[in-house]
Design goal:
Helices cover about 20% and strands about 35% of the residues. The protein is globular, with a radius of gyration of 23 Å. It is of the alpha+beta class. The strands form four sheets. Strands 6-5-2-3-4-8-7 form a seven-stranded antiparallel beta sheet. A six-stranded antiparallel β-barrel has the order 9-10-11-14-13-12.
């Protein structure tokens, strides 16, 4: 009798367990990541952002230094330069806390992190490795949501330990790397792994236009903005995201240092990143858009708004138009169009093919320098 009961109930129990895992654990495919860019404007953190240091020069990427003897030695070198970032956002009278990690790139107190860690914050505090908690002047927070990078500055009386920056282009698949950060909000932790892939393009999934390093070193919530370092104790990536899904293990990404450093330099020197600017908001056309707006095409990039006085406005583009080609290249996602704008030159005249209603048109627009973020 007991054997029969086991045969009857065991398949039922296993089926229930599978349904639980599929419906619960697999809901969030991408966690701890930035949102895809929807337009070519430069976002603001809600404050008047000023240049942190107009004369700051990025370190030269002159190759990897001699490897340290062990992972313990690597952590000992880098850990004093890693900080925990705590944010507060007030909405409808309620205060929500968040956080992440960052690392000191300059001994004057300049810190690098992810844009998604600080972009919605009303106040920010930084906890140094020695335990000191320092509030951040929000006017020193410079954000570039397009690349998910941000810098901020803390006022200190003495130099802070800055970590060296390495050349990510010299990485090879199989190289050892260490991810360091405020993992899960429990303080600074280190995880080790290898480079699974270099020069990764995620595209629409994360909206990240820079090259990414894929690693199997554990990257958990709270690690965002922290450094991924090589065995010389040099930052070769900024931890950004991981895949969280049933059956997926050890797939995380970090923004490559060689791609990130020019963005970091502009954020420090200018307070924002200067790019070619068209002046539109965009979204990828989906079957829902085709049905709801009665579109004549089922692929393209729908314009959601046009900034008055922008190059797009001068070229005659309007909200509701669907762009199907930009600079002679077919575009089917907003990521492709935004990427096309940003790879063009300021002052360049570009050809845009679009549909309005049931008619196809071609226009030209001259891209200008992106305006500073509005406070």
């Amino acid at each position: 009798m007991r054997m029969r009961l086991r045969r009857v109930f065991l398949p039922i129990i296993l089926s229930a367990l599978v349904l639980f895992l599929v419906s619960g654990a697999g809901c969030d495919l991408f966690s701890d990541s930035g949102e895809p860019a929807q337009d070519d404007t430069t976002p603001s953190n809600g404050e008047d952002t000023t240049a942190i240091d107009p004369g700051w020069q990025a370190p030269l990427l002159d190759g990897q230094s001699s490897p340290l003897p062990s992972i313990t030695d690597v952590v000992a070198v880098v850990k004093p330069s890693v900080v925990a970032i705590t944010t507060e956002m007030v909405s409808y009278g309620f205060t929500t806390e968040g956080g992440g990690s960052g690392w000191i790139i300059d001994e004057s107190g300049i810190i690098v992190t992810n844009a998604h860690v600080v972009s919605e914050a009303d106040s920010i505090t930084v906890t140094l490795d020695d335990g000191r908690v320092i509030p951040v002047d929000m006017s020193t927070v410079a954000i570039d949501a397009q690349t998910d990078l941000a810098v901020l500055k803390v006022d200190v009386d003495e130099p802070l330990p800055a970590v060296a920056v390495g050349d990510s282009t010299r990485l090879n698949i199989g190289d050892w790397v260490v991810a360091i950060g405020n993992s899960l909000g429990f303080g600074t932790r280190a995880t080790v792994g290898i480079v699974s892939q270099n020069d990764v393009k995620i595209g629409d999934e994360l909206g990240q236009p820079l090259k990414l390093i894929e690693t199997d070193a554990a990257i958990n919530p709270g690690n965002s903005g922290g450094p991924l370092v090589n065995m010389a104790g040099e930052v070769i990536g900024i931890n950004e995201a991981k895949i969280q899904d049933v059956g997926v293990e050890g797939v995380g990404w970090a923004i490559a240092s060689a791609d990130a450093l020019p963005i970091i330099q502009e954020l420090i020197n200018n307070g924002y990143v200067v790019r070619p600017w068209l002046g539109v908001g965009t979204e990828t056309v989906t079957p829902t858009h085709v049905f709801w707006y009665r579109l004549a095409v089922d692929e393209g990039v729908r314009i959601t708004y046009v900034t008055p006085g922008s190059p797009a406005d001068t070229a005659g583009l309007k909200a509701g138009d669907v762009v199907v080609a930009f600079m002679g290249i077919d575009v089917t996602t907003d990521y492709q169009m935004v990427r096309g704008i940003h790879t063009a030159e300021i002052g360049q005249t570009v050809e845009i093919v679009y549909w309005r209603g049931n008619s196809r048109y071609t226009t030209q627009a001259t891209l200008i320098e992106s305006p500073p973020p509005q406070g």
